Structure formats: structure tokens, C-alpha cells
Amino acid sequence: MLLELSGIKKSFKNGSRYESILENLDFKVFKGDSIAIKGKSGCGKSTLLNILGGLIFFEEGEMLFNGTNISKLTSNEWAEYRKKNISFVTQNFNLLDDRNVFDNIALPLQYIRMPKKEIKSRVEKVLHDLEIQHAMKRNISTLSGGERQRVAIARAIVKEPSILLADEPTGSLDEETEKSILRIFDELHHKGMTLIIVTHDDSVSSHCQHIYELYHKKLNYVNS
After folding, report:
1. Residue 222 near residue 61, CB atoms below 8 Å
2. What is the pLDDT of residues 121-153, one digit of tens each?
3. Contacts of 15 (CB under 8 A, 6+ apart)
4. Distance CA 93, CA 98 (A)
5. SS3 content of the chain, % helix, strand, coil (to 5)
6. Within 10 Å of residue 191's Cβ, how many Cβ atoms?
7. Whether this model's pTM surpasses 0.90
8. Parallel/antiparallel/unpaired status of strands 86-90 and 210-215
9. Which helix (H) or strand (E) covers residue 204, if one does?
10. Which DSSP string corresponds to 32-68?
11. In the chain, what are the domains?
């Protein structure tokens, strides 16, 4: 078991009172899983993804990573968990416009203070794997939407995370570009990477090994 959530409750303040968005939620992720999480807008999909990524905390329940209860980590320990184990891909890419493609991808490796020689080697490899080596020195502003998403994926996987979390990763792409991005996710899964993808798109979820729906504040298993 790579990741296990049990009895998770998460609430947000709405005016003078708190409203729960997740209640008594259970979820298990095994190493190498490819999982889609579906659900209506506002049902808590992104909230759940941010909990898995250690970006927001929950009021009740436990979260285990590799069998260790990480629910009570300090803020610094959560930051270390994210840095070592988690990468995100989002619909809006979240790239740095003041840096070129190489520097955007290298950023996570710089955070963990990897030697420059190894950074260069890793970045060049992932550029080649995702077929964007031609864009290595280009400014982000000159890239197409599909190229930007490839750069975002490259940045996410270059540190070889335990889990790749993707929030509507093809939501802003045209149909042909979406297909090329989904082929990349298929290849990552076949190489053994653990993927959790939030999506409303059946064409995206159909590429995943397991499909869940977030409904009435809980995850329901739909298909495998």
C-alpha cells in the first residue's frame, strides 16, 4: 500500500459556519496504480487532490504513506513529504514566464539541491522522452498549449516522484493535443509511475486503470 486515507473529514468556512466537503472518506492507492477521480464541479475533487499532495490539512481521519501515519506531521515535515514524493500537473500549467523551458523543468531538482551535472542530465533526458528537446532554450511565452503542458509534465516527473497528481490536465487543450498528452500519461503508467487524475472527461478517465466518483462527500468505486 502506497497511500491510505481513512475517515477523512474536511470542512471550509461559509460565512459564520463551517460546511463539510468531505466526510468519512476512505481511499487506498497501490504503487503503480492509475486512478481517475470524477465528480460534479464543486464536489471536492481538487480538495481531495490537495490533501493527497499535502497542500491542505483535514480535521478528522488518518493518512498513511508507505504504512507510516503522516497525519500529525509538522508544517516543515509536510513540506518535506511534498518535496520528496509528490508532483502536480494542473490545467493552467503554472510555469514561470521569466524562465526558459530548461530552467522551468530544472526547478524541482534545484530545490532538492541536486548537483548541476545531474540536473543537466535529468532535464535533457525528460526533454527527449517527451519530445520537446527542440524547445529547451525557448521562452515559455512562445510555446503552444500542448508544448506548455509537456513542459509542465516534464517538470513534474523529472524528480521521479512517488505519486503524480493531475488536476484536469487536458482541460484547456484541443482534442488532438489532449490525445498526445494522454499518450504520455499512458507511457508513464506503463513505466510504473503512480497517477491520480481529477477529471470530468470520460476520454481521460477511460485511460485509467481505476475510476472513482466523488459523490455525497465520499469516494465510490466505479470501474476497473
Report:
1. no
2. 999 999 999 999 999 999 999 999 999 999 999
3. none
4. 14
5. 35, 30, 35
6. 10
7. yes
8. unpaired
9. helix 202-205
10. T-EEEEE--TTSSHHHHHHHHTTSS--SEEEEEETTE
11. 3-96+148-223 (3.40.50.300)
